[in-house]
Amino acid sequence: MNRYANLRGKALLFLLFLWFIWFVNFTIRIIFAPILPLIEDEFAVSHSQATGIFLFLSVGYSIAMIVSGLLSGRLGYKKSITFSLLFLSAVVFLILMVHEFLFLYLFAFMLGFFVGLYLPAAITLITEYYSEKDWGKAIAIHDTGASSAVFAAPFIALFLLHFLPWRWIFTVFSCICMVCAIVFSFASIEVKITNPPKAVFSGLIAIKSLWIMSVIWIFVSAANIGIYSITPLYLTKELQLSIGYANAILGLSRLGAIVVAIVCGFLIDRLNLRRMMFLVMIITSFLTVSMGVVSANYIGIVLFLQAFFVTAFFPVGLVAIARTFTREMRSLATGIINAISMAVGGGLIPYFLGISGDTVSFRLGITILGVFVGLASILVFHLKELEQGNVKCNINQSKIS
User: Fold this and answer.
1) The predicted structure's pLDDT at residue 87
2) Looking at residue 205, which CATH number applies to its domain?
3) Would the pLDDT of 239 be above 60?
4) 68 located within any domain
5) DSSP code of 400?
6) Helical (H) or strand (E) element with 238
7) Average pLDDT estimate for 104-133
8) Coarse DSSP helix, strand, coil percentages of the chain, rounded to the nearest 5 percent
9) Does 398 score more than 60 pLDDT?
10) Buried b (16+ CB within 10 A) or exposed e, 40-77
């Protein structure tokens, strides 16, 4: 297929539609966070039981990431995204009928699974639709769908809660997913990559940078979505703020994250990726530790700054993945790295933070997490493929190409 020559006209319109799909997907993925205090109170469960929802979400998400990376190239990226939206619509609709807490774990797993099918297919689709000179901007613009969802989710929840019980929020998103699936099926062109997935997988897992990148993403994801997931509980249960005020702080703290993600898109192609990743992680580490020690009076300011810097990592990190791995490996590498980071950073670590909130305090867990983010930043300098900025593959990868 012919790639778009620039980010104008139809090219920009299609990218914005992908942005909206990612926005909807990610909002569904995180909408549990702003309503979690209500769920905890209704089902009379502990912090660790409530945050267990994120563990099941993340496990389902992680499995789907790997499945998507392995099969999307053969099935077709258009079909993968369309099917994920259709099944997600069905699962989200059924949450309306859940009245036993344990069933929320089951639906969280399925919800996470169908959301997780999207990103590996979308990143590869973007690199196939757009020229390499526009990858940084295209991926960064697309990635703002996640940061916009993180900003908007608390306000969407607060708005809908004025009119609907919390379960009906998912019904609204079910209808939106159905519409997106239908429009996407008509608006996109199918892309397939026919290299044998098993051969690609066996070569990919032998690459050291895959595992280094995975560890880095674990702690950055924990500092981003992990912190976001437990913040409403932290603010309402430990700092004694109202749920409305807590969600307002949570949402507004993510406003700057949208801007920084766009700015990063225009800086990525000009600056050294490794230095950008390291700088963002060090600042995120300091601000995450600060979040665990400041008083309630200053928590809003720290949350804003922490979200601002941690969000800058993701467009940079996605471009780093695209430049590190070959065309055949790109979707699978994105899937594996995101799978590991979301299972641990977006699921297991929030669960540990919930245990910390039950046994000692959320503050202690958040502070320890901040320290680990700083330690993980050192690993950035072991990503040898990024030394020259645009080097895309190492010797092992070239054997498969």
Assistant:
1) 93
2) 1.20.1250.20
3) yes
4) yes
5) H
6) none
7) 85
8) 85, 0, 15
9) no
10) beeeebebbbbbbbbbbbbbbbbbbbbbbbbbbbeebb
Contact 255, 190 (CB under 8 A): no
What gap in Å lies between CA 396 and CA 283, rounded to an integer? 34
Domain count for the chain, please give it.
1
> What residues contact 285, with CB distance under 8 A and at least 6 apart?
223, 370, 371, 373, 374, 377
Are 330 and 322 spatial neighbours (Cβ–Cβ below 8 Å)?
A: yes
What average pLDDT does range 342-352 have in this prediction?
A: 88
Backbone dihedral angles phi then psi of residue 130, each to the nearest 5 degrees: -120, 150
What's the whole-number average pLDDT of the chain? 83
Structure tokens at 368: 């320890």
Domain-located, residue 3: no
Residue at 285: amino acid letter: S
Report the distance separating Cα 221 and Cα 344, nearest Å.
9
Domain housing 247: 10-400
Q: Would you state the structure tokens that stand for residue 98, as one six-digit string? A: 């859940």
In this prediction, residue 401 carries a pLDDT of: 35
The DSSP element (H or E) to which 10 belongs, if any, is helix 10-30
Give domain status of residue 4, yes or no. no
The 10s digit of each residue's pLDDT in 53-77 is 988 998 898 888 778 766 776 777 8
* CB-based burial label for 332 (10 Å; 0-12, 13-18, 19+): buried
Element (H, E) at 4: none
Residue 82 within any structural domain of the chain: yes
Give the percent of the chain with pLDDT over 90: 25
Cα distance between residue 128 and residue 131, in whole Å = 8
Position of tokens 């249960």? 237
Look at residue 261 in the predicted model and tell me its pLDDT.
Answer: 67
pLDDT of residue 393: 42
If you average pLDDT over residues 178-187, what whole number do you get? 92
